[in-house]
Amino acid sequence: MSAASPSTTRKPSARDRLLAAADELFYAEGIHTVGIDRVIERAGVAKASLYSTFGSKDELVRAYLEGRHALRRTRLLAGLERYDDPRDRLLGVFEVLAELTGTPGFRGCPFYNASAESTRGGPIEEVSNANRAWTRGLFFELARDAGAKDPAGLADQLVVLYDGASVGGRMDQNSTAALTAREIATMLLAAATL
Amino acid sequence: MSAASPSTTRKPSARDRLLAAADELFYAEGIHTVGIDRVIERAGVAKASLYSTFGSKDELVRAYLEGRHALRRTRLLAGLERYDDPRDRLLGVFEVLAELTGTPGFRGCPFYNASAESTRGGPIEEVSNANRAWTRGLFFELARDAGAKDPAGLADQLVVLYDGASVGGRMDQNSTAALTAREIATMLLAAATL
DNA sequence: ACGATAGCAGACAGACCTGTCTAGTCTCGA
DNA sequence: TCGAGACTAGACAGGTCTGTCTGCTATCGT
User: Fold this and answer.
1) What CATH architecture is B69-192?
2) Exposed / middle / buried, residue A74 (Cβ in 10 Å: 0-12, 13-18, 19+)
3) Which residues bind DNA (chains A, B) (predicted)?
């Protein structure tokens, strides 16, 4: 098998290594506390490469968040493929979240975290809003497929539960909140499809 | 009326002015992005006064969060005094939250925000956990007084709703999430006191 | 009257951060 | 073989941050 894409070569490109390092460090320790030097040291990349690839730290941060957004979409959709019944699929979102919040490295929603330490109106807010809109859209579709009378209203409720479970998972360092959210979602779903 | 306490003198003390300035700036823009110079400039206070009063920026941050904790308790308890019926008192928490998330300057939970931009294990985490424990305890008492069969379980559910409403209020810049949370809480309360 | 206390103004040190620039190395295709 | 493109190593500039230190001033209790 010949090397079809850069990602299959022996060593990942500088771009990929930078992105991987930024992802780990920014998520674990925050964006402000992690300096460029830490990122390039972990990536094993020269500073000039970072600036020729991304142009600025802000753009690196944007790329980090866009990567998180893409990863979240694929992970969530992949996790939902386990289920056939539309109701199970809707509740499956909270199963996936429970798995995520149960892992040791979980530090809450990367978009909210980034937003909390940045001033309003930058690229962070953009990606953050896109991610949020996608979540709402997913819940809307799942609610509609599950036969909810008011799918938009149910989606709003589920978003509240999702956010709450995410916060709880971070602050309490366990997945109790996600399981609680799943229970509530079960009740709401039953009430919405009467 | 003579000046009975320092807080009634003509000009607030340097400590109070520093705390007020730190509160505004840290909450509005984040802790890392706001430097000491900004704080003392707004407070109209010399840098030496800051360091002789608080000792370090970390301690100023702790004082800021402790002030927020105290303010939140009094505001919430005061807001609940409007209601007599135990059920109304429980739901009243979400009314107060709706009012808060509706105000223009609302930027989410100051404890979660501070925690999001700090490394683990400092004073921020301490105050944050204390605040969180207080909230859970309040919900437990309210749930018990409202006649819930499993007040601890209901409290867990309400905490999820509260966190979710707080996040939603910040990200969407309105109080829809808080009102949605109130609706869900109504259902949960009904189900818990059957 | 006077000493203690609190506070103001601002220079300064030392660390750290982003971003630029120079110069050398490695790889690979034509 | 050779030249272009990607990358590395690291010095450097300019700014910002926390925290310290030196003087000066005003107020207040005794």
Assistant:
1) Orthogonal Bundle (1.10)
2) exposed
3) 35-54
* All CATH 1.10.357.10 domain ranges in chain B, comma separated: 69-192
Residues of each domain in chain A carrying CATH 1.10.10.60:
13-55
A65-192 belongs to CATH 1.10.357.10: yes
Q: Report how far residue A57's alpha carbon sits from residue B15's, in angstroms, rounded to the nearest whole number.
A: 36
Q: Tell me which DSSP letter residue A194 carries.
A: -
pTM (two decimals): 0.92
Q: Are A171 and B132 an interchain contact pair (Cβ–Cβ within 8 Å)?
A: yes
For A162, which residue in chain B has the nearest alpha carbon? B164
DSSP letter for each residue of B28-45 = HH-TTTS-HHHHHHHHT-
Instruction: Please determine, looking at this structure, whether the domain spanning A13-55 carries the CATH number 1.10.10.60.
Output: yes
Phi, then psi, of B180 in degrees rounded to 5: -60, -45
From the Cβ of A3, is strand C under 7 Å away? no
pLDDT digits (tens, 9 = 90+) for B18-29: 999 999 999 999
Residues of chain A with CATH 1.10.357.10: 65-192
The parts of chain B modelled with pLDDT lower than 70 are 1-10
Helix axes B176-192, B86-102, angle to 10 degrees: 170
Cβ contacts of residue A78 below 8 Å, gap of 6+? Answer: none
